[in-house]
């Protein structure tokens, strides 16, 4: 690769400006593409050799999936993992704190940016779509073949993946440059941003064309193909896409963004358009109808229909609620610095207790009767909730604030006094307890750890189960029930389906219907809107959605506990004894400015380009 690097140096000396050089001509600088293909395909010297060989073609194809989201990847900061739960009003961790994103930051901080990795994958997809072809005459009669039918399916899946990567770029940056061809040194490489409408319409058209040749039915019963996207996955992405298009953030509500234009005067963010709200409702309904037809996707219920088991088992095995999941995951094994170790308290073998839940999320969960612990606009305070004193839960004395909470609370939160699975020991976060602050790392900073998605057979006993596979879910049906209810409420709040789909999610968790608790909520757009937003906060807690929800709703400037992402965040008092521990104490202060509604294009790309313009405030 010496010659290629010298070519790049010569180009740089001529001051040739390029867009995101590391991914558009990555093989000239870091050899990202040809080097990887060399390794996978056995020392090729020309890219055409990849697509004249079946095995090499398939390896290139599989590599395009490398950047699918992995929401089990929580002990790391890449933008396609789940660092977003820590950047939102849900979790705290040392690694998130070290990223610099809790204080005010600038565009030179590229932590968690998706810009480079996704454009790299887009370039690989472009090359594949340009070069892949049937291979039917390679070798002898027993040689591998790649039929035209297989090529059509591969191309559809790759086209979907390219659209998906553009969706995740749009989610983070808003309008981005659309690149549909692999670029060479002879091409113009400094490319301006497309308008947001152009990006949305491009993704939409690509998804529609791709799904015609994607697998039309879910792979529920085919273990070998469960990670492969299907028509239903493409329909789900369309639903999310149009929810964004209709959102306040992208539909005229971000006033500063309306002033952003390319250097030729082209406006990048659109004014408000009511038809996009209707479009979002229609596209969500298309997916819901597809899901309901023949029960393609259904909410998961345990065989005993026990709400506590249902909300736990949902994340442990492939099931018909899962629209798409990836087989790759970072649950890890006890002792490794991954999810399972960081969600296990130090009182248990190999536990490091590093994923801390904020009080603001703890307080969002309902009580067992379906009411909140503090009165809201749509429901009064539960009469059963008490913060002072102690009661008994699962055989141990715990604060009354943890008594009689809903099943999703117990499935999500490890609190002081919780009985740990396998060992049966009490977890004690208070000072002088068995998991207290007397350690240099792993102190219970908020007094809570994340419990959701941990497998309850995993434990550090010897012998014992120290790791357990479970799918890393990308999309699941409950998310889309709530999205449909949300957009239907904006178009037709009196439609009974608004509450129907919210209540289906609540019922699975063992909670009464909303209108049973408050009859006046039915048809009231404002009350239903607030109820839906709370339901999303609870049902999808720490699954990587909250960070983006509060931004598309543009409520991130609110106070903490009301959707706000800036201000003082709290937990319990780790300096206190068993009694005084159970008082709210400030953990830290986070910064949120209006510029934080979108990520900045990395500073180095702005400095290289003559045509890129930055997001507002950066």
Widest sheet: strand ordering: 1-3
Share of helical residues: 25-40%
Radius of gyration: 25 Å
Q: Low-confidence runs (pLDDT<50, min 5 residues)?
A: 1-41
Number of helices, where a helix is a run of at least 4 consecutive DSSP H or I residues: 22
Mean pLDDT: 92
Q: What proportion of the residues form beta strands (DSSP E)?
A: 5-15%
Could you describe the largest sheet, including whether it forms a barrel?
Answer: 2 strands, antiparallel
Q: Could you tell me the number of beta strands? A: 10
Task: Calculate the terminal CA-CA distance, rounded to whole Å.
Answer: 37 Å
What shape does the CA trace take?
globular
> Quaternary status of these chains?
single chain
Topology, element by element:
Layout: H1 2-13, H2 21-24, H3 26-29, H4 32-41, H5 54-63, H6 84-87, E1 91-92, H7 94-98, H8 115-131, H9 148-173, H10 196-211, H11 231-246, H12 274-292, H13 307-313, E2 322-326, H14 339-342, E3 356-357, H15 359-362, E4 390-393, E5 396-399, H16 407-412, E6 413-415, E7 448-450, E8 472-476, H17 477-491, H18 497-508, H19 514-517, H20 525-539, H21 546-552, E9 567-571, E10 585-590, H22 603-608
Helix pairs in contact: 5-8, 8-9, 9-10, 9-11, 10-11, 11-12, 12-17, 17-18, 17-20, 18-20
Keywords:
mainly alpha; two-stranded antiparallel sheet; 22 helices; globular
Could you please describe the fold and organization of this structure?
The protein is mainly alpha-helical. 36% of the residues lie in helices and 6% in strands. Strands 1-3 form a two-stranded antiparallel sheet. The chain starts with a helix and ends in a 10-residue tail after the last helix. It is globular.
């Amino acid at each position: 690769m010496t010659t290629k690097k010298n070519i790049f140096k010569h180009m740089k000396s001529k001051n040739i400006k390029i867009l995101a050089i590391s991914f558009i001509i990555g093989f000239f600088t870091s050899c990202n593409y040809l080097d990887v293909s060399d390794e996978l395909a056995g020392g090729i010297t020309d890219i055409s050799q990849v697509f004249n060989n079946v095995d090499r073609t398939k390896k290139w194809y599989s590599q395009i999936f490398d950047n699918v989201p992995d929401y089990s990847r929580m002990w790391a900061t890449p933008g396609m993992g789940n660092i977003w739960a820590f950047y939102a009003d849900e979790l705290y961790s040392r690694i998130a704190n070290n990223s610099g994103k809790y204080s005010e930051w600038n565009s030179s901080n590229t932590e968690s940016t998706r810009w480079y990795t996704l454009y790299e994958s887009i370039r690989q997809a472009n090359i594949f779509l340009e070069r892949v072809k049937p291979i039917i005459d390679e070798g002898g009669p027993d040689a591998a073949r790649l039929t035209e039918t297989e090529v059509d399916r591969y191309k559809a899946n790759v086209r979907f993946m390219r659209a998906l990567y553009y969706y995740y770029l749009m989610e983070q940056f808003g309008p981005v440059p659309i690149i549909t061809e692999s670029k060479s040194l002879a091409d113009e490489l400094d490319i301006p941003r497309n308008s947001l409408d152009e990006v949305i319409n491009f993704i939409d058209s690509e998804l529609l064309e791709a799904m015609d040749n994607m697998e039309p039915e879910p792979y529920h019963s085919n273990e070998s193909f469960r990670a492969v996207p299907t028509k239903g996955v493409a329909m789900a992405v369309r639903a999310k896409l149009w929810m964004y298009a209709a959102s306040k953030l992208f539909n005229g509500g971000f006033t500063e963004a309306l002033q952003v234009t390319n250097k030729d005067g082209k406006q990048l963010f659109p004014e408000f358009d009511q038809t996009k709200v209707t479009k979002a409702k229609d596209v969500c309904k298309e997916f819901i109808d597809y899901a309901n037809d023949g029960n393609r996707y259904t909410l998961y219920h345990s065989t005993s229909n026990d709400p506590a088991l249902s909300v736990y088992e949902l994340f442990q095995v492939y099931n018909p609620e899962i629209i798409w999941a990836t087989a790759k995951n970072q649950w890890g094994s006890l002792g490794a610095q991954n999810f399972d170790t960081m969600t296990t308290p130090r009182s248990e073998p190999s536990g490091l207790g590093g994923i801390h839940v904020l009080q603001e999320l703890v307080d969002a969960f309902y009580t067992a009767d379906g009411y909140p612990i503090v009165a809201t606009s749509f429901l009064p305070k539960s009469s059963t909730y008490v913060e002072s004193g102690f009661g008994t839960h699962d055989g141990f004395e715990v604060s009354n604030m943890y008594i009689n909470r809903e099943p999703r609370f117990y499935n999500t939160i490890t609190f002081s006094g919780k009985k740990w699975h396998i060992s049966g020991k009490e977890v004690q976060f208070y000072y002088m307890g068995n998991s207290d602050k007397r350690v240099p790392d792993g102190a219970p900073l908020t007094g809570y750890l994340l419990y959701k998605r941990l497998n309850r057979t995993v434990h550090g006993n010897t012998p014992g189960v120290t790791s357990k596979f479970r799918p890393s879910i990308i999309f699941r049906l409950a998310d889309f029930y709530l999205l449909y209810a949300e957009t239907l409420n904006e178009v037709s709040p009196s439609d009974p389906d608004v509450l129907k789909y919210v209540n289906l999610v609540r019922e699975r968790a063992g909670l009464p219907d909303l209108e049973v608790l408050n009859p006046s909520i039915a048809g009231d757009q404002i009350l239903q809107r607030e109820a839906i937003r709370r339901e999303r906060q609870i049902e999808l807690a720490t699954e990587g959605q909250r960070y983006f929800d509060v931004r598309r709703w543009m409520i991130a400037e609110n106070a903490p506990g009301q959707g706000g992402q800036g201000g003082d965040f709290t937990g319990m008092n780790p300096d206190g004894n068993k009694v005084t521990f159970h008082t709210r104490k400030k953990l830290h202060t986070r910064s949120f400015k209006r510029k934080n509604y979108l990520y900045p294009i990395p500073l180095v790309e702005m400095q290289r380009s003559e045509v890129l313009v930055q997001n507002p405030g950066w």
